[in-house]
Amino acid sequence: MSNLHYYYLIPIKLRKTYFIIFILSFYFISCSEKKKAIVQKPVKEKTIVHKKYGYVIDGLKVVTDTIANGESFGSLLNKNNISFAKVYEINEAIKDSFDVRKLRAGKQYTILYKDTIPEAFIYQQNKIDYVAINIKDSIYVKKGKKQVTVKERELSGVITSSLSNALDDQDVSIMVGLALSDIYAWSIDFFRLQKGDRFKIIYEERFINDTVYAGMGNIKAAYFQHGKQDFYAFPFVVDSTKNSFDYYDDKGKTLRKAFLKAPLKFSTRISSRYNLKRFISYYGRIKPHLGTDFPAAKGTPIISTANGTVIESTYRGGNGNFVKIRHNGTYTTQYLHMQKRKVKVGDVVKQGDVIGWIGMTGNTSGPHVCYRFWKNGKQVDPLKEKLPEAKPMDALLIPIYLKSIQDVKKQLDAIAYSQKQLDKLNEKESKPNHDISKN
Ligand SMILES: [Zn+2]
Fold first, then answer.
1. C-alpha 384 to ligand 1 mean position (Å)
2. What is the distance in A from the centroid of ligand 1 to the CA of 182?
3. For 158, how many CA atoms within 13 A lie in the half-sphere containing its CB?
4. How far, in Å, from the CA of 354 to the mean position of ligand 1?
5. 31 vs 424: CA distance, rounded Å
6. Class of domain 51-145
7. How do residues 372-417 score in pLDDT, each as one tens digit?
8. What's the CATH number for 37-47+148-256+392-439?
């Protein structure tokens, strides 16, 4: 707590330096107290320290307890030097605005005393809402909400086995992992994260009275390094009338990517569509065509229609040279008859990346790419699939966007990875073979 307050006493220019020391201090603390490795920096702190439940508490005694089974408003007050006659008077005075029979065992209450005489009784309905019953002088009820403070938190992680593992012992809400997989749903296949992948995130955490965690707030920026590729994500409102935002990368490209219409850059001409009843004269019978054929000259680059991981890159029978890319838990695409393949299994590719070149390997009568579109393990017609919309950002907005993310991107880039996690990664890599003394 005191660390955070001193932070504001430091000139802005020195804050960064201080912040690094601050992170380091947490790192060292974390060696002895595992669960406390939290790097926090408050953004908005409006806590009024001398007030509680709307009362100035300087000079008052504040006692908080939990309502036990069988305890009532009357018994609690009576225990605290309030006569039953007075309790009756209070009940009568407030019954229209608050029914004291609603007090439930297990809930928290607070009594504010002046010396030994209660001045107010506060019933905590839930984490945020409370009812304050004023007893001293006049009797009345005040309903209120506890002060919610928002603290910014920076977090980083290195994947050694899984995302949840990387978030482990960092005292992180499960919501952070879910939020990340949601942001990157169309950019990164979270079931195919690789060892050594890493991430950073700047997000808000909400606290009641500075201490009680009340959930995750907004995500300000995120970064994922997956298969050596960078994936930035920044929220941005493109349509202020709609008051909704979307995530964009460091170039202003949307993360909500749909598939490209074609696996070729300059041609979307189709020579043969997906057709379950295609008649093939060569065979003299109907043979379904499960792909969409895009003809082009030999050597024309073939591009991945969406971000994903290469799961097959091989030569096999009628398919010839082909590449298969898994995009997420639902979609996989496949590109046949390549002259040459450019990617290998495990490569992470982005939408538009060249994965091979047009050829006529396998069963084909002319140079083309046969594009296969798999949904949940079945081949479907991509031209008939309802895919997520990927509206690019308006070109006019891009410079504004790029300017708006400048500072937060710098902040994101400056986040360090925990040495402990990096060590864990190296440990696992060097263990199987022989002992390498670390330097
Ligand atoms: Zn085909």
1. 16
2. 34
3. 18
4. 19
5. 14
6. alpha beta
7. 999 999 999 988 887 776 778 889 999 999 999 999 999 999 999 9
8. 3.10.450.350
Beta carbons within 10 angstroms of residue 87's beta carbon: 19
Residue 268, helix vs strand vs coil: coil
How far is the centre of ligand 1, averaged over its atoms, from the C-alpha of 168 (Å)?
47
- CA 329 to centroid of ligand 1, rounded, Å: 24
Superfamily of domain 279-384 in the CATH hierarchy: Glucose Permease (Domain IIA) (2.70.70.10)
Q: Which two tokens stand for residue 203?
A: 């997000």
Each domain of the chain, given as residue ranges in start order, spans 37-47+148-256+392-439, 51-145, 279-384
* Fold agreement between 37-47+148-256+392-439 and 51-145: yes
How much distance in Å is there from the Cα of 257 to the middle of ligand 1? 25
Task: State which residues of the chain have pLDDT below 50.
Answer: 1-40, 432-439
Report pLDDT for 92: 92
Question: Closest Cα to residue 125, out of 206, 53, 54?
Answer: 53
